[in-house]
Design a protein that fits this description.
It contains four helices and two strands; from the N terminus they run αββααα. It is mainly alpha-helical. Bound molecules: zinc ion (ZN).
């Protein structure tokens, strides 16, 4: 939960506490590829494009990435699609 009373992912809170506010349209990404990890040393900022490129470069897209990209392209809620991609839904 963030200071506006809405739910915020733990790793985003960890980033904010350590580094300050997350710029608009930026995501907090993981060097370690563990979605639940909130070690600030494992986190870095990137755009959605960076996130996808990071996934591709690390080979963790499996067979679900094309589906994810297609769903985001079609306008599905990005966070919901991400949550499903990473098995958090
Ligand atoms: Zn980590």
């Amino acid at each position: 939960m963030n200071n506006r009373g809405t739910v915020e992912c733990a790793h985003r809170v960890a980033w904010t506490v350590t580094n300050g506010l997350i710029p608009k349209k930026m995501n907090v990404l993981h060097h370690c590829d563990v979605p639940s990890c909130c070690n600030p040393a494992h986190l870095f900022l990137g755009s959605q494009k960076d996130n996808v490129q990071d996934m591709m470069s690390k080979g963790r897209h499996g067979s679900r990435l094309p589906d994810f990209v297609e769903r985001v392209r079609l306008g599905q809620n990005k966070k919901k699609a991400e949550a499903e991609l990473f098995g958090a839904a």
